[in-house]
Amino acid sequence: MEKLSSPKKTIEIIQKYNFDFQKKFGQNFLIDSHVLEKIIDAANITEDDFVLEIGPGIGTMTQYLSEHAREVMAVEIDHNLIPILKETLAGYDNVEVLNEDILKVDIGKIAEKKNQGRPIKVVANLPYYITTPIIMGLFEKNVPMNSLTVMVQKEVAQRMQAGPGTKDYGALSLAVQFYAEPYIVANVPPNCFMPRPKVGSAVIRLTRYKDMPVKVKNEQLMFSIIRASFNQRRKTLQNGINNSSTLHFSKEQVVDALDKMGLSPKIRGEALSLEQFARLSDLLEG
Ligand code: SAM
């Protein structure tokens, strides 16, 4: 079948099937072959790879993935897209389409079955309304994974890559950087999609660490501290922790831990690196 990655071909398919774009599913299909090639390049897909694609839409990127990978599994929630995918992916015999909600699929099990538990690669033009649950779900469930190369909202990509002391730095930066090294591959304007999204987009690659660079005794506690310190951005870290309903440390405990780290009691959360949050968490846990 002819490649889909042009506005003309996309419109042809959409009209043939009388397809209605569903806003609730974040449906903005890619119509730019340069962007698609950039994504495939950045993901560094080889003939050895098992690739999970989240939300194939009408199969535009799936065609590219199929040509580079050993095997592709594409998980699509919208049942109206399934007959379309049957047509657009006919002849691509290393692709399997699963009509499911990605948040309900056990990806670890699929990696075990289809890739003998070896790390998979995830590639997607993500539905933006569930970017964070999808990415954090894959990390937190310890799905064996080399990398995630995904299209996300531009501001979200910037937050994922931001470092301490910058305006975009926050709980999402730390959560992502605990598991992976982020790299923004390209910014993508709205005219590369159909229909055009209201926001700018960016492709970001998250390369999963094999050995976690930051060790912490209690991950849950560290992330509770991180959330508390960014809840009230303009307040000191100490106030953030004290005002949290989930953490129960006294002012003295927090000041004492900061002092042991050589940090001022007036420091704000946005100034601390991931390593420093890990150390603070370890000190507070005792
Ligand atoms: N990959 C296609 C492309 O680039 O043209 C479509 C990308 S579109 C931004 C997001 C896709 O994810 C849509 O096809 C949408 O139906 C699908 N989707 C939305 N929520 C989903 C979910 N919870 N599980 C699986 N797919 C979902």
From TrEMBL:
Q: What is its EC number?
A: 2.1.1.182
Per the record, what are the reactions this protein catalyses? Answer: adenosine(1518)/adenosine(1519) in 16S rRNA + 4 S-adenosyl-L-methionine = N(6)-dimethyladenosine(1518)/N(6)-dimethyladenosine(1519) in 16S rRNA + 4 S-adenosyl-L-homocysteine + 4 H(+)
Per its database record, what is this protein's job? Answer: Specifically dimethylates two adjacent adenosines (A1518 and A1519) in the loop of a conserved hairpin near the 3'-end of 16S rRNA in the 30S particle. May play a critical role in biogenesis of 30S subunits.
Top enzyme category: transferase
Q: Where is this protein localized, as stated in its record?
A: Cytoplasm
**Which Gene Ontology cellular-component terms appear in the entry?**
cytosol
Similarity comment: family membership: Belongs to the class I-like SAM-binding methyltransferase superfamily. rRNA adenine N(6)-methyltransferase family. RsmA subfamily.
* Claim: Ribonucleoprotein is one of the keywords in the record: no
A GO molecular function held by the record: 16S rRNA (adenine(1518)-N(6)/adenine(1519)-N(6))-dimethyltransferase activity
Q: Where, in this chain's numbering, is S-adenosyl-L-methionine bound?
A: 28, 30, 55, 76, 101, 125
Main location (coarse class): cytoplasm
Instruction: State the organism named in the record.
Output: Anaerostipes caccae (strain DSM 14662 / CCUG 47493 / JCM 13470 / NCIMB 13811 / L1-92)
Gene3D superfamilies noted in UniProt: Ribosomal RNA adenine dimethylase-like, domain 2, Vaccinia Virus protein VP39
Instruction: Please report the name of this protein according to its UniProt entry.
Output: Ribosomal RNA small subunit methyltransferase A
Q: Which UniProt keywords apply?
A: Cytoplasm, Methyltransferase, RNA-binding, rRNA processing, S-adenosyl-L-methionine, Transferase
Q: Which InterPro entries match?
A: KsgA/Erm, rRNA_Ade_diMease-like_C, rRNA_Ade_Mease_Trfase_CS, rRNA_Ade_methylase_Trfase_N, rRNA_adenine_dimethylase, SAM-dependent_MTases_sf
Q: Which gene encodes it?
A: rsmA
